[in-house]
Specification:
With 406 residues, this protein is mostly helical. The protein has a two-stranded parallel sheet. The termini are far apart.
Length: 406
């Protein structure tokens, strides 16, 4: 009859209609299909599947993971997580790099450097003091007493600078510097984004505590800041930015908060610190250029170094860690020793130059050149001390900044 279609199972093309068209297609009855001997043993259909387009079957005898297999997989995952966490902790190290050594050796090396510098400076100052006192012993009374008074005043200034820095250091908190570059790099690692978020929240909370304890509210605090170069207008701006940063609804993300802290709060502190470094560097250069002997150079450089460190700690209201403190003190002592040695080198250079002006020498007629040589050697020593104290100040700022300049 027209409109009907016959189906046959003898054709190799399954599902191909033959005969008349129009008969509705009948779906096979659901139910388990009888086992075909041509199929491999161990393969079976999952519920709801047919033999048409089915995925590869899983053998029935596939063994599950044993306890030993699970243990090995768990140990491998723990080792990988430990390696990633170690890398993350290195990226987010709170203390800035003081020495390019492992943490196990950094502090002993810094302590050895400090003890060695202090010992060398002590021996040099002792020898110079004995030499100066022996020289004063043969002078008239008024010269001798004036020399004693000057040496006593200079030693008192050094003692005051050391005591001031020590008292301020004991009162301040240790700086745990935030490294924004490490946080950003950690946030790019998909498996450790949770750690980056946690560390960002921890760093922000630590900086908020720093803002709350920064001394800028009372008149006494403002006077102390004004002595280190922060004007009343700058102090008022710091208070405004601090209140803005402590407002929890002010910033939409941590990146914006860190950027505002770095530019609005830490920026004026960096500018004031740079001004104090230039202030003490100029005085060091001028005084060491005018100093009459190596002892005065060493004591003056020691005083200026400790005074500058105290001002920088006051500006940031923080102190360095143990290793950083040891390196800073060692560099102060080394600079003082080097300033004294520069005077000795200046004398040696001057003696060689003076040989050119002896009667019969090639430049004997140029008497003014002797004055130029004297002034030139002292000026060279003053310029070198200027750069040494400036380098010490910049290194101290790198250790004291709340947020590192990556």
């Amino acid at each position: 009859m027209a409109g009907q279609t016959d189906w046959t199972d003898d054709d190799d093309r399954i599902g191909v209609p033959v005969g008349r068209v129009g008969t509705p297609v009948r779906e096979p009855a659901p139910g388990p299909r009888p086992h075909d001997p041509a199929e491999p043993d161990g393969a079976e259909l999952r519920p709801g599947e047919t033999e048409l387009g089915r995925p590869p079957q899983v053998p029935r005898n596939l063994a599950p993971l044993s306890d030993d297999d699970r243990r090995r997989l768990r140990e491998a995952e723990e080792q990988q997580a430990a390696r990633e966490l170690a890398e993350a902790e290195e990226l987010l190290a709170s203390d800035p790099a003081v020495l390019r050594w492992a943490g196990l050796f950094a502090h002993p090396l810094a302590a050895a450097f400090l003890v060695g510098s202090a010992g060398v400076l002590g021996l040099f100052v002792y020898s110079q003091a004995v030499s100066v006192l022996n020289g004063l012993a043969g002078q008239p009374d008024w010269v001798r007493y004036a020399g004693y008074a000057g040496l006593g005043l200079l030693a008192g200034c050094v003692g005051y600078a050391v005591l001031r820095l020590a008292v301020l250091y004991l009162r301040l908190r240790r700086n745990r510097q935030v490294r924004l570059a490490g946080l950003q790099e950690l946030a790019g690692r998909t498996r450790l984004r949770w750690l980056a978020h946690a560390k960002s929240a921890e760093a922000k909370a630590r900086l908020e505590e720093y803002l709350r304890t920064f001394p800028v509210d009372t008149d006494r605090d403002r006077r102390a800041l004004e002595r280190v170069g922060l004007t009343p207008a700058a102090a008022a701006e710091l208070r405004r930015v601090r209140d803005e940063l402590l407002d929890p609804a002010r910033f939409a993300s941590s990146d914006q908060w860190f950027a505002r802290f770095r530019g609005g709060f830490q920026g004026p502190l960096d500018a004031a610190a740079d001004a104090r470094i230039r202030y003490w560097a100029k005085r060091t250069g001028v005084l060491t250029a005018l100093a009459p002997n190596a002892l005065v150079d060493s004591l003056a450089t020691t005083y200026f170094g400790f005074a500058m460190l105290a001002d920088l700690c006051r500006v940031y209201n923080l102190r360095a860690g143990r290793t950083g403190t040891a390196v800073l003190l060692a560099r102060v002592f080394f600079n003082a020793y080097l300033a004294g040695q520069l005077t000795e080198w200046e004398k040696l250079t001057e003696e060689h130059i003076n040989q050119l002006f002896t009667p019969g020498g090639p430049l004997y007629e140029l008497a003014a050149a002797r004055v130029v040589s004297k002034v030139g050697t002292k000026a060279a020593g003053g310029v070198l001390n200027y750069f040494l104290i400036g380098r010490l100040g910049r290194y101290a700022c790198r250790l004291l900044r709340p947020v590192g300049l990556d």
